[in-house]
Amino acid sequence: MSKILYEVYQNDIKDSESVMYGKWYARLKSIETLNMTKLAKHISEHGSVFTEDVVEGVMKKFKTCLLEMLLESKKVKVQGLGTFYLTAECTKGGADKEADFNVREHLKALHIRFLPDQTAEDNLSSREFIKKAEFVNIKSLLSSGNTDEVGDEDEENNSSSSEGGSGNTSTNSGTGNTGGNTSTNSGTGGTTGDNTGDNTGTGDNGGGDNGGGGDDDPVINDH
Question: Residue 157, class by beta-carbon neighbours within 10 Å (0-12 exposed, 13-18 middle, 19+ buried)?
Fold first, then answer.
């Protein structure tokens, strides 16, 4: 049966102004990262009439064309899954005047973003997606001696799972916040480019870059 593994941890970051210090939260655990070949094999084994190599070929072409369309200032919507789009990250501080703005000087990075589908029949927004999941505490799984399904690969960037956490890219499974940001807030500067769906319709931050100071890695997520 499908399940999402999580572990409970205590916030030990001392901050006199933080009410989160000493509290307990949940963070997700990953057991494997599937590459394109493994995913194609998985698809081909699920009643598909297409062989593994055909599936992988289509996926590779999809990736190439997706990037091509994004670089032509287009969004790409995959029906029932969501929309891929770009946002721009500016250098911290920006330009003092409109006439002073220079792309090479003031634009730091382009980020690939993903906004889950929110139509009634395919609602994948954070607060709806959590209803589809079954959660298993990894500690109880290990104590029962069932280690076959447990790997050693942690969910990346899961440093904060509480409400109000900054730059949280994973689904928060604790009681404080059952949602989760579907894209990374990159920093403190101003937003440039198209901010698609600031709110997912359920109170979750669905897109846009908050300027400079963030990571340079594109986010094609995993929410």
Answer: middle
